UniProtKB/TrEMBL annotation:
Presence of keyword Transport: no
UniProt protein name: Cytochrome P450
Cofactor(s) listed: heme
Similarity comment: Belongs to the cytochrome P450 family.
Entry keywords, A to Z: Heme, Iron, Metal-binding, Monooxygenase, Oxidoreductase
Length: 445
């Protein structure tokens, strides 16, 4: 059952978006259960640009690489991040760079960029390499929930590389807890601060994080160190702009969140795919063994099999499955009229299964990224796990550096497997995570 999403202006030759009359709850439950089947059915019924209710709002759902390009490149400046992302995660990640728009976003991003320059990345690599090497030596063996282990490891890396603080255990636990509660709040079902709920805990924890970061700012401003916290206290754009204390705190909290689950999900997917296709695990291990234990920044591009596994794993399960925006003026997507005020979302997860782009998209085939086949180059947005346009992930090189360093140590020192008939059960209620934590049998080599 459909209805028109909105009235088209009389003088317009744009097409009308068809809007599904399904209730928001039934759409959200359908998406969570099977996002692929849900979107396929919608496209068969309404086409690639369609309307639906979800999370208490009406949304224009735009699927396919051309629509993604139009919205993300945003040539007419018709789409804004802030009002859309704030609706979902605003109270917890207030004034993070992804929630800013246009000139304000540009000026903040230029300063933030100083924390992600090649020189900065190299110094993070120096901080992270020995720490990861040591932690991987003590990695548990036997029946291991990989997702859980990766989460703990990446959180420790974040504390060291982003914050550069040596905290007593109690304090580290308190901050870890506050951070996890802040992250979890974004996907709360009850979206009001009812005591005891995720939303309420998220707001309480955001306050704890703010107080914690503010208390360390004077010391961070006084002495330069290599961590992101210190870099942001000193960062200056070419135009001479710097961050206030408030900016530093807002950006740090956002970056911690943006880096954490995305990297953990990527590594979990890579390990799962390698366990299911052990020939790729062997190829990646041979590369890592050839390089020696310590991975340098320049070694990162000497791991072609691992790189292809990374790309294919992120194609098959992209950690950020949708990109929400709001239309800030009457506009269009692929010739469909989209009125001012519309919430819009791109179907990033589904776009990576487009049969007109990828051959046999449901099979794990890292060779599709080879120079000869280059399926991902068929369209600018054919492979877009990091988004595109001005909000493209600022941490994409940092993320790959951390993920490849951890994988390098895992491959050199351990083997892992899953039963032949095992299929990873996924929870798609927010970012896609494994319902069972990915249990593997891990043994030391
Ligand atoms: C494999 C890991 C990662 C994936 C798949 C990923 C994905 C994304 C995506 C899709 C966006 C854009 C969202 C949108 O336009 O609506 C984004 C933005 C962002 N990411 Fe990542 N990310 C990853 C790792 C990281 C890491 C490690 C960091 C920081 C160290 C980071 C920091 C950010 C920031 C700050 C933004 C906002 C940029 C802006 O709005 O200008 N990400 N990420």
């Amino acid at each position: 059952m459909t209805t028109a999403y909105s009235q088209i202006p009389a003088d317009s030759d744009l097409k009308e978006v068809q809007f599904s009359k399904k209730s928001g709850i039934s759409s959200v439950l359908g998406m969570r259960k099977d996002p692929f089947g849900f979107q396929r059915k919608r496209e068969e019924e309404f086409g690639r640009i369609s309307g639906m209710s979800a999370f208490g709002k009406k949304w224009v759902v735009a699927s396919g690489a051309p629509a993604a390009e139009e919205v993300l490149m945003n040539k007419k400046k018709a789409f804004a991040n802030g009002p859309a992302w704030s609706y979902l995660i605003g109270p917890f990640f207030n004034r993070g760079v992804m929630l800013l728009d246009f000139d304000e976003h540009r000026s903040h991003r230029l300063i933030l960029q100083q924390g992600f320059s090649t020189a900065a990345l190299k110094s993070y690599m120096d901080l992270m390499q020995p720490m990861i090497a040591k932690r991987m030596q003590d990695f548990p063996t036997g029946e291991v929930l990989l997702f859980k282990e990766f989460k703990a490891l990446t959180l420790d890396v974040a504390l060291e590389v982003f914050l550069g603080l040596e905290l007593p255990k109690d304090e580290a636990d308190r901050i870890n807890k506050a951070f996890l509660e802040t992250v979890q709040a974004g996907v709360a079902v009850i979206r009001k601060p009812v005591p005891g709920t995720r939303w309420w805990k998220g707001i309480r924890s955001r306050k704890i994080l703010e107080e914690f970061f503010y208390s360390h700012i004077p010391a961070k401003r006084a002495t330069a160190t290599d961590d992101l916290f210190s870099v942001l206290c000193r960062a200056e754009s070419e135009e001479g702009q710097t961050f206030t204390d408030e900016d530093v705190v807002n950006h740090l909290i956002f970056v911690l969140m943006a880096a954490h689950d995305t990297s953990t999900i990527s590594m979990t997917q890579m390990c799962y795919r390698m366990a299911k296709s052990p020939e790729w695990l062997t190829k990646a291990r041979e590369e890592s063994l050839a390089l020696g234990p310590e991975l340098s920044y320049d070694d990162l591009n000497k791991l072609p099999a691992l790189d292809a596994i990374f790309k294919e794993s992120l194609r098959m399960c992209t950690p950020v499955p949708a990109h929400p925006r709001m239309a800030v003026e009457d506009t269009e997507i692929q010739g469909f009229f989209v009125p001012k005020g519309s919430m819009v979302t791109l179907t990033a997860l589904w776009n990576h299964y487009d049969e007109s782009v990828y051959s046999d998209p449901w099979s794990f085939d890292p060779d599709r990224f080879s120079k000869e086949r280059a399926e991902d180059k068929k369209h600018r947005m054919a492979w877009s796990p990091f988004g595109g346009g001005v909000h493209k992930c600022i941490g994409l090189y940092f993320g790959q550096m951390e993920i490849k360093t951890i994988m390098h140590h895992l491959l050199r020192n351990y083997d892992w497997s899953v039963p032949a008939d095992y299929e990873l059960p996924m929870d798609y209620s927010s970012l896609p995570i494994p319902k069972d934590g990915l249990p593997v049998t891990l043994r030391r080599l």
